[in-house]
Amino acid sequence: MGELTQTATVTQQETVVQPYIRFDPEYTRTIPGIVKIACIVLNLIGFICIEFSYFSYRPQGSFFNTIAMLGFWFSGIMLVFYLFHVCEKFHKIPWLKIELYFCAAWTLLYMIAASVAAATSIGAFQAAAFFGYCAMVGYGVDAFLKFQAVRAGEIAQGSRTVHVQQQQTVSTLTA
């Protein structure tokens, strides 16, 4: 006398990676690769501006240089990981989330460090502040790109496809 409808949703996820380490310079031609290289260069230039100043020992300079060098090394190591497909080999590690959190934190820390450096009357610190603000924008763009990739369910390297299949069953009940 009545109908019973059952719907089943089957989701299949397929991850395709090549699990061997190899050098591939193609990453440097992608937008995330260009942004990462720009951040590395801006970190280094800001660090050099402070270091070659006579007042590099001041706390403002030390704070800026700490932020710049931690950003330089993290971004540099991640660049090497992408160039040699280490992220693809270890695709189970949530690289995009790690980078998203780092880039978001570094955007905030660079805003603080560059503002502190810009508040001084030392020309080298003000020059470093300019590069710090540029690095802040770079890390902000990188964080936005990582956020979009995480939300889309992507992995750092390789490809992931998701297949969703719905199946409906209609049964007639008789009494």
UniProtKB/TrEMBL annotation:
<protein>
    <recommendedName>
        <fullName>MARVEL domain-containing protein</fullName>
    </recommendedName>
</protein>
<feature type="transmembrane region" description="Helical">
    <location>
        <begin position="124"/>
        <end position="145"/>
    </location>
</feature>
<keyword id="KW-1133">Transmembrane helix</keyword>
<dbReference type="InterPro" id="IPR050578">
    <property type="entry name" value="MARVEL-CKLF_proteins"/>
</dbReference>
<feature type="transmembrane region" description="Helical">
    <location>
        <begin position="63"/>
        <end position="86"/>
    </location>
</feature>
<dbReference type="InterPro" id="IPR008253">
    <property type="entry name" value="Marvel"/>
</dbReference>
<dbReference type="GO" id="GO:0016020">
    <property type="term" value="C:membrane"/>
</dbReference>
<feature type="transmembrane region" description="Helical">
    <location>
        <begin position="98"/>
        <end position="118"/>
    </location>
</feature>
<dbReference type="Pfam" id="PF01284">
    <property type="entry name" value="MARVEL"/>
</dbReference>
<keyword id="KW-0812">Transmembrane</keyword>
<feature type="domain" description="MARVEL">
    <location>
        <begin position="27"/>
        <end position="151"/>
    </location>
</feature>
<keyword id="KW-0472">Membrane</keyword>
<feature type="transmembrane region" description="Helical">
    <location>
        <begin position="37"/>
        <end position="57"/>
    </location>
</feature>
